[in-house]
Input
Amino acid sequence: MNYIIMGPQGSGKGTQAKIIAEKLGLFHMESGKMLRVMAKTDKRIRNMVKKGLLVPDRETINYIEKHLTDNNAGFDNLIFDGYPRTLSQFELLVKWLRSKGKDIDYIIFLNVSEDESVKRLSSRRTCSKCGEVYNLITNPPSKQNACNCGGELFQREDDKPDTIRKRLNIFNSQTKPIIEKVREDGKLIEVDGERDIDVISNDIIARLKEKNVRHN
Output
């Protein structure tokens, strides 16, 4: 079974993806982290990441395939986090998976309000050394005011309230069409993302197991 986890900025999808992947034995395909690692040695990718630009769709799929192959992950039992972001990306991802004899079975949508997203993102911090992203509310580092690797944490310019609201507008215009499409297809699992982390993950896992029983 393959899943996509989605939600507006600050919804905690990265945190939930890690928990779900661990509990269900899935490979966490974290596209943002993959690109950040690539950016360390690829100047072109680094400039795109810094500017907040999207890597071309077909190029991203090629990077994802290489990443999965390099990690012996195969093309099943995956949870995609951070990709796709547009309907065209979603359709390309589905087409690519089907070429491998696989599919996207369900999309998990973490529903949070705009005010909650702004609150959470304003608490996000990035490691200046390794690029790891934390959230002081939903995913704090184990070390106070420092990354687990020892690097200094800082707040990115795009995590300021005004910029966040602009990014949320982009999410509503570009990403929500994916949610509406899979809702029509009966593949959407929508959950309240404004609860405690454990409550949300337990809810998601229970609903996935219920869906999978029906699916099988």
Remarks:
- The chain is about 50% helix and 15% strand.
- The mean pLDDT is 90.
- Residues 3-113+175-215 form a domain with the Rossmann fold fold (CATH 3.40.50.300).
